[in-house]
Design a protein that fits this description.
78% of the residues lie in helices and 0% in strands. By secondary structure, it is mostly helical. It has one domain.
Length: 274
């Protein structure tokens, strides 16, 4: 996860001294596209509670669209070709737009506020209680003595999943937001493509976690006659690894494509790491 953590470090450091950053920061508040609002309204009855728990994925959807739209704006204004011949290069300009979009109106800071995490923690407990009421018990009959420890493992892995989702969702949003305008140069096309691709990737990774972690892994452990006690401890770890690992693979792949499509040299990559 070195790439993800490096990208995360870049994102948390606003590039306030660059004129492009200052211009984007000074723009009016970003208005969510109508189609994005329609999708969220349509699925809100099913996604409201998970959406609060995995709030960064929802923010990431907005940021992916916003970054792609910002870069496409520069292309339509005829400024992009001039900007990319500056030392940061195409990828560095993408990072500038990304940084301005994330820090405009302190959006990124709001997702990391203590109050936000307390709210997410509360709704995580609610979500886990609802899941426990409609699914088989996570504590096998022969593991009653370890019940408290097993519950603790589930809470720990859920907390780690929330934080990993927070980091990976925002990193993925930034990568997609920078990459999409290299293919779709018009603002409407870029924002729509970023919306669809980011949403599809998120849905696929969540579905993959459900499929492998909740359907396949228990059957495999049962096939190898693993005891119920061991399974109770191993399953949440497997689900966390699938959840984090699948998106980490995607993040690395998108990064390689991004470096290739922006013709970024190793020296330019080092430059934007500063």
């Amino acid at each position: 996860m070195i790439l993800t953590w490096n990208f995360w470090r870049w994102m948390k450091k606003p590039l306030t001294g660059h004129p492009l950053y200052q211009r984007i920061i000074a723009q009016p508040p970003y208005i969510m596209p109508w189609y994005m609002g329609c999708v969220l309204i349509l699925f809100s009855p099913f996604l409201l509670l998970p959406g609060i728990v995995f709030l960064s994925a929802v923010y990431g959807l907005r940021w992916a669209v916003q970054i792609a739209s910002g870069l496409a704006d520069e292309r339509e204004a005829g400024m992009y070709d001039l900007l990319v011949i500056t030392p940061p290069g195409a990828l560095g300009i993408g990072r500038l737009v990304m940084s301005a979009c994330l820090h405009r109106n302190e959006s990124l800071e709001q997702t990391e506020a203590i109050g936000t995490w307390m709210m997410r923690g509360f709704f995580t407990v609610v979500l886990m209680l609802i899941a426990a009421s409609v699914s088989p018990s996570i504590i096998p009959p022969d593991a009653a003595l370890f019940g408290g420890v097993i519950v603790g493992v589930y809470f720990l892995t859920m907390g780690l999943a929330m934080y990993i989702d927070h980091v990976q969702s925002i990193v993925l949003a930034a990568e997609i937001g920078i990459l999409i305008p290299t293919y779709a140069t018009r603002r409407l096309d870029a924002s729509a493509a970023a919306f669809i691709i980011y949403l599809v990737i998120q849905v696929v990774t969540f579905m993959l976690t459900l499929l492998i972690g909740f359907a396949i892994a228990p059957k495999v452990l049962e096939l190898f006659q693993v005891s119920g006690v061991v399974s109770a401890f191993v399953l949440p770890v497997i689900r966390l690894l699938v959840f984090a690992g699948s998106r980490e693979v995607i993040i690395h792949y998108v990064w390689r494509v991004l470096v290739r499509e922006t013709d970024t040299t190793s020296s330019e990559v080092e430059f934007i790491r500063r």
